[in-house]
Amino acid sequence: MAPAETLVTTTQAIPLLALLQALPLAGALALLAVRREAPAFALALATAGAELVLAIYLYLRLDQGSAALQLSERWSLSPALNYHAGVDGVAVIFILLTALLSLLVVIYGPVRRLRPVPRFLAVALACEATLMSLFTTLDLMWFVMLSAVELGLVGYLMGRWATSPGEELARQRYWEFMGTGLALLLAGTLLLGWNHAVTHAGHWSFDLTELASVPVDPALSSLTFFLLFYGLAIRTPLFPLHGWLPLVAEHGNVAVAPVFLLGLKVGIYGLVRFVFPLLPEAVDRWNVYVVAFAAAGIFYAALLALMQTNLRRLLAYAVVSHTSVLVIGLFSLGTAAFQGAVMLSANFGLAIAGLLFMTGCVYSRMRTTQLDKLGGLFDRLPIIGISFFIAGLSIVGMPGTPGFDAVHLMLEAAIARFGALVTIAAALGNVAAAAFLLWAFQRAFLAPASAEAAAKIPPATWPERVIAGVVILVLLGAGFYSEPWLQVTDAPLSALGARFGLGH
């Protein structure tokens, strides 16, 4: 079982976590009554800004020296399903990232003229509310139901504001894969609830603290692990379960839906929050096989990325390749591995969001993301180009970005767990990522273009400058000052690492 101290929850008088979930939801409902664009944008901006302030306050309230789940809120709803929320340093990292990216999405939407603007902003805030609930819930069934809501909202964003005639196929493939993932996730959750009922006189429960107290038979734990793992791996996405992503990236929404879906690694969070604490024996038993697929996925996706002529598809394969690196770190099973994986997940979330936002800015001018039709953009859009470049460097873990410390921790853990071969594969995957991302930057921004074509490209607007500037400042700030982000996750991940015999 998971260490007891990680499952003890401390309560609070003010329902801070409920406020985090309710504020964007209230903003979304209010926007349904707004018809004009300017008031809708002002309301959404105020709501998203207040949510970011609330997330920062949560970070300041957290006792970083404690491994316990803190600020607990619990309301009884039914015998088997109750509202139970709580956070630790890991959850706070994802909550801060959600609040920041949601604010950038709100700024980005009107820039791209995603009309009707009030409806778009309402859906964006609803996505934020759902994600906040996902990162605070301590009930596995709540997590599954909220995942269904989040995937539904993202699917609506992708289809309603798609930018390609092929969006029907992209939407179909999205629902096929996500529906399968949800079904697997639900099946694994029901098995854990049933296992609890068998040992507790028929009382079903999906609460993390209660499930962790019940031993799971080895055969059942393996089956449950694969159901939960595959359910989460589809949305992460991990090779070979990534087949939906290139189509969605090319034919769906350029930035907004992918930012919510890929910038926030709910799958990685679900593994750390539920799967690893509840099924440690199965994780330890099967981690080598997971890492083998991840290592293969690094080179498969990197090779395909180098073959792409469309910037959106190239970024899709970059996601698959880098996710494989992330999974190798996570399944190296130790405090350094977990810290590297969580930090890499947050770094990757912001960096890929930056790449997607900048790609959206390019698409709004060029009406294409075909690399052979781009070029000469840096002279007209220097801030967009610099943001794209720094986000790309952060993906590959260059010094001065938060990816550097994360990749270092991950490689250190991987070589201790699996030896040189897997570690070299992960390192070469980073080199390949540098190759195709720098190649994409060169083709899109530095390749020569005719003077006439370059002169027709409008300069960056002030909202685009704000988005690009925030991406640059946060990535460089977190890169040069990474200690606070490692410190906030140290206590809970040390406790989790100790369960696998690889703590500090």
Task: List the main descriptive attributes of the protein structure presented here.
single chain, 504 residues, mainly alpha, three-stranded mixed sheet, 3 strands
Structure characterization notes:
The protein has 504 residues and is mostly helical. The protein has a domain at 289-504. Helix content is 73%, strand content 3%. The protein has 21 helices and three strands. It has a three-stranded mixed beta sheet. β2 and β3 form a beta hairpin. α3 packs across α21 (483-499), α5 packs antiparallel against α6 (167-199) and α14 (335-366) packs antiparallel against α20 (462-480).
Secondary structure layout:
Blueprint: E1 9-11, H1 16-31, H2 37-61, E2 69-75, E3 83-87, H3 89-111, H4 117-134, H5 140-160, H6 167-199, H7 208-211, H8 218-235, H9 245-251, H10 256-263, H11 266-278, H12 280-306, H13 311-330, H14 335-366, H15 377-380, H16 382-395, H17 402-418, H18 420-446, H19 451-455, H20 462-480, H21 483-499
Parallel strand pairs: 1-2
Antiparallel strand pairs: 2-3
Helix pairs in contact: 1-2, 1-4, 2-3, 2-4, 3-4, 3-10, 3-14, 3-21, 4-5, 5-6, 5-10, 6-8, 6-9, 8-11, 8-12, 9-13, 10-14, 12-13, 12-18, 13-14, 13-17, 13-18, 14-16, 14-17, 14-20, 14-21, 16-18, 16-20, 17-18, 17-20
Structural class based on helices, strands and sheet pairing: mainly alpha
Helix share bin: over 70%
- Percent range for β-strand residues: under 5%
Q: Please give the count of helices.
A: 21
| Strand segment count | 3
Overall mean pLDDT stands at: 87
Q: Please write the string of helix (H) and strand (E) elements.
A: EHHEEHHHHHHHHHHHHHHHHHHH
Main sheet makeup: 3 strands, mixed
Low-confidence stretches: 1-5
Gross geometry: globular
Quaternary status: single chain
With strands numbered from the N-terminus, the spatial order across the biggest sheet is 1-2-3
**End-to-end Cα distance:** 19 Å
For the CA atoms, what is the radius of gyration?
22 Å
